[in-house]
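for the record, two folds in this file. i put them one after another cuz i was lazy. first one right below, seq on top, C-alpha cells after. the second one comes after a little note so u can tell where it starts
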Amino acid sequence: MAFAKKAAAQVLGVVANGSFKSSRFAGQSLGSRSFTPLAHGVHVFHCPDDVGIVAKLSDCIASRGGNILGADVFVPENENVFYSRSEFIFDPIKWPRGQMDEDFLKLSKKFNAMRSVVRVPILDPMYKIAVLASKQDHCLVDLLHGWQDGRLPVEITCVISNHDRGPNTHVIRFLGRHGIPYHYLQTTKENKRDGEMLELVQNTDFIVLARYMQILSGNFLRSYGKDIINIHHGLLPSFKGGNPSKQAFDAGVKLIGATSHFVTEELDAGPIIEQMVERVSHRDNLHSFVQKSENLEKQCLSKAIKSYCELRVLPYEKNKTVVF
C-alpha cells in the first residue's frame, strides 16, 4: 500500500504539472522487494447511459492490476447519454497494450459506445499534426517553441502557409534546424490548392490553424475527414474580418478574448474547445491592446491542443463539447 500511494502521488504530480510525458519512473524498492516501472493511461468513454457503467470500467482496470488515479463523469440532465474520462496506472507487463485494447473493446460493445479511446503516452505514438499559418507569426512561433520544449505532446510533420517567408526569417531558420518542411501554397478564391494540401496532410492525426487567414473549402473538410482546430480572435463572433484588434480597440471594449474551436463548413461556428478573456482599459494603447490579444490567442490555442491530446475533449449534442 505504501508503494501504491507513493506511485500514485508521483503520477498525480505529473498530471498536476500539465505534462503527459513519460510517467514511467525507475524501479523502486521497499525493503528487499523491487517493482516493475508503472505506466500511465487515459481512457474516455461515450455511450448511452445505463446502470453499472462506472463499476464495469473500474473492474476492467482493477482486474488487470491497474489503479485508477482519477475519474470524471458527466451525465446530462434528461438525456440518455454517459461521458467519462479515467486516468490510471498499470504494469505494462501484466497488462500488455494489445490486451488493454481488447478489454476496452469488450466494454464498448457491451454498452454500445459511440466512442471508446485509450492512450498510453509512453507507449503510443505522438499525434502527428500539420500547422497552417498565414503572415502573423505569434501563434505559429508559440506552437513551435511549445513543441521544442516538450510542452505539446505532438509531432509537427510540416508547416503550410499562403505567405512566402524569406529564408532568413526566424520561422524558416527554426524549421530548417529541426527538419520540419515548410510549404508555401499561394491561394486564391478560385483555387484553394485543396489537392496539394490534402496530399501534404494525409498522414496527420489532426490539423492546427495557427492564424491561417484562409477559408478551408467544404471539399477539403470532407476529404480530410479528421479534426481541425482553429484559433479565433475574440469571443465568437465579435469583430470578424481584417484587423480585428483595431476594430475592438476603436470600439472601446473593456474585455477581450480568444476562442479555440473545431472547424466546420459554417465559418467560425464549430464546437468550442477553449475560451480565455482579459480586461483592457482606456490606459491601453493599440500596441499593448494587440499584445494582450495575441498572448491570449497563443495561450488559448496551446491549451486546446493539449486538452485534445490528453483526451479531455468529447463531442456533445450537435455543436458543443464536453471538456474534462
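(here's the note) second protein begins now
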Amino acid sequence: MDGSCKHFISLSLAWLAFLCLYFTFVSAELQRFQQPVKADGSLSFLVIGDWGRKGAYNQSEVALQMGKVGEKLSIDFVVSTGDNFYDKGLASPDDPDFKDSFTEIYTANSLQKHWYSVLGNHDYRGNVRAQLSPILRRIDSRWLCLRSFIVNTEMAELFFIDTTPFVDEYFRNPKHQKFDWRGVIPRKKYLRRVLKDVESALRESVANWKIVIGHHPIRSMGHHGDTKELIMQLLPKLEAKNVDMYINGHDHCLEHISSITSPLQFLTSGGGSKAWKGDFHYLDRDEMKFYYDGQGFMSVELTQTNARIAFHDVLGKVLHSLDLSKQLYTAM
C-alpha cells in the first residue's frame, strides 16, 4: 500500500471518528445517575444554594445546622442550586477555593454523601470547565456538577437544568461581568437541545415524583424576581408534564410559592451564606406561602405517595413546612 493510500485511509478514519463524536454530541441525552433509596423505600435530602464564601456570612453556621438535620433525617444526598463559589466560580481544578468553601466547611458525617450540583451565574464568571472537571471528584468524592443531568431513584427523578444561558441580560447587558460561555455558544442551539432533552426525559419518566432543579427561579418575590425567559420557555413544559416541584437558588432567601394553575410548587433555597434583608417584592396572597430574607436551607423527605418539605434557618429551626400527597403512579 503506497503512502497516498495510507494517508487517505487515515483521513477517512479521522473523519468517521469526528462524525461519531459530532452526532453523539448533538443527539446526546441527559446523563443519568442512579441514587439508591433507604431500606424502607424512603428518600431524604437537603437543598442549599448560593453558599461558597469560605465560611463567611454565616456559611459555616448554616453548614453546622445542615449536619445536625442531615443526621436526624439520615439524608441520602445533598442538592446544590448553584452559585457554588463566589465571587467568580473556580479559576482551575486546583483552585484552593474548592477546599476552603466546600471540603473544609461541610465536614459533618451526615454530609459526606453525594452533592449533586448545578451551575449558577457566578460560577459562569469563572472557569466553568474547572467546576465540571472530574479532577474535583478526586479531591472530594462527594462532588458531582454537570450542566444538565438526571438523578434516578425508585420513587423520584430529579432533573437538573443549566438555567444561566437562558437569561438574556447576561448576553445583552453583561455590564462589567465576564462569562465563560464555552460549551454554550451557539446559544440558541444549546438552549433548544436542553429544552428538547428535558421535555423528552419528563415525557418518558415513570417516577411518582418529578422534581426539577435549576439555579434561577421561575417565580420569586426576592431581589431578582421572576425569570421571564424560564416562564416563557420552561414553565409550560413543566406544567404539561405534571412536575411536582421546581427548586432553585439565585435569590438569597427561602421561599415557597404555590402555582394557581397547576400542582407545581416553586421552592427557593438560596440562603447558604449572604442574605439580602428586606429586599423583596409583593406577590398575590394566594400564591405566596412563605418568604424569609435570611440564611438557611431546605430539607425534603419522600415516600412513594407523600412528601414533606421544610425550611430551616441558621439555627436549624423549622420556619415553614408543607406536606404533599399523591396517588401511586402506575404505567399504562
